[in-house]
Amino acid sequence: MGAEVPSAETIRCDLRDAGILTSDAVLTPLTGGVSCEVWRVHPAHVTPALLRANPHGLVVKAPLATLRTPELWQADVSRGYAESAALSWYGTKTADAVPRVVWRHPTAPVLVVESAPLGWADWREQLLNAAADSREVTGERLARISAHLGSTLAAWHLGSRDAGVLPEVLLTGDRLRTLRTDPFHRATANEVPDIGPQLRALADELESARTCLVHGDFSPKNVLVSAPTVPFGAWMLDAEVAHLGDPALDVAYLSTHLACKGVARPQLAASLDGARRAFEDAYRRDSDLVAVERWDRHTGAILAARVRGVSRVSYLAPEQQVFVLGLARGLVRGELSLNEVWERILA
Are strands 234-236 and 223-225 parallel, antiparallel or unpaired? Predict the structure, then answer.
């Protein structure tokens, strides 16, 4: 596998030569987060042969070797191959829960997927910025989205218990260590030494497991949702961290981000608490792969990392970060449960 990512112009030419884009096509940059470059292709620039199946246009994605974080964070760009393989596999299990893979570059870690319909939005942005009385963040809507994510994740985890069903690229590589346990658990252990031993032990636990396919970035920032006024739809994106590992990472990841949003937006905390319960109930209805105690401890580890690790949430005030770190300490040490954490958030 190649480890070079072509320039945007080279990618555009390659897509044109592959019969995907018209000769005058433009790649419009999108916000790709810290780990990748992302471009959108307008439907007018999709070739007629592909337009019928992709009426909303296309999205092109290429990984970055050096991530956009204040501290140096580098990762192998070959993770782009794993992402394309994971999204394709997820599509065979839950076709309505991920974008369809349209094309994979034959020699570079560049991926093309279908674009979401007009009006679909980033769930993270809605949770952080929608008015508290908006239809986008009603308790019923948040619970529906979360239940969808819980049942989807359970299907992915259970469907991959037999590693033989997975592409080889998802069984190898160091994505978990370079993208999660080192910059999250171990970096945070250095910053918060009083729970350092527990964080390092949880990192070792994640790295030793080979239970099922783990998404690794199961977060609201990677969820696109339909508008409240149209039939329900939601996609999970960004499977760069996908690997054969421990399902506790995925459930803890979403639990962490719902808790952080509850702290950041106390006016939505009750609805977010309902959402996390809907997620847990939907997941546990179909999967018993993550025991309650492990769910809680791993959530604590990710909570601590999001305020003291290499990649920190940007929307918590300093005093809120201190509060979240206190919750994380309690979870990691086994002194608090997630239910007790949410009692404190709601208070």
Answer: antiparallel
Question: Which secondary-structure segment (H or E) carries 212?
Answer: strand 212-214
What confidence tens digit (pLDDT) does each residue in 235-286 have? 999 999 999 999 999 999 999 999 999 999 999 999 999 999 999 999 999 9
Distance CA(240)–CA(223), nearest Å, equals 14
Calpha distance 12→21 (Å, rounded): 8
The residue length of the chain stands at 347
Return the sign of the alpha-carbon dihedral for residues 284, 287, 293, 295: negative
Taking the whole predicted model, whether its pTM rises above 0.85 is answered as yes
**What is residue 4's predicted lDDT score, i.e. its pLDDT?**
64
CB atoms within 10 A of CB 159: 17
Tokens of 46: 């999709």
For the chain, where do the domains classified as CATH 3.30.200.20 start and end?
8-114
**Which pLDDT score is estimated for 32?**
57
What distance in Å separates the CA atoms of residue 187 and residue 42, rounded to the nearest whole number? 40
Count the neighbouring beta carbons within 10 Å of the beta carbon of residue 292.
12
How far is residue 323's CA from residue 320's CA, in Å, rounded to a whole number?
Answer: 5
Amino acid at 198: Q
**Tokens read off for 26:** 């433009």
What's the rounded Cα separation, in Å, for the pair 276 and 296?
A: 13
Q: Specify the DSSP element, H or E, that contains 261.
A: helix 248-264
What superfamily would CATH give domain 121-346? Aminoglycoside phosphotransferase (APH), C-terminal lobe (3.90.1200.10)
CATH superfamily of 8-114: Phosphorylase Kinase; domain 1 (3.30.200.20)
Q: How far is CA 84 from CA 27, 211, 252, 305, in A?
A: 19, 21, 23, 27
**Predicted pLDDT of residue 330:** 98
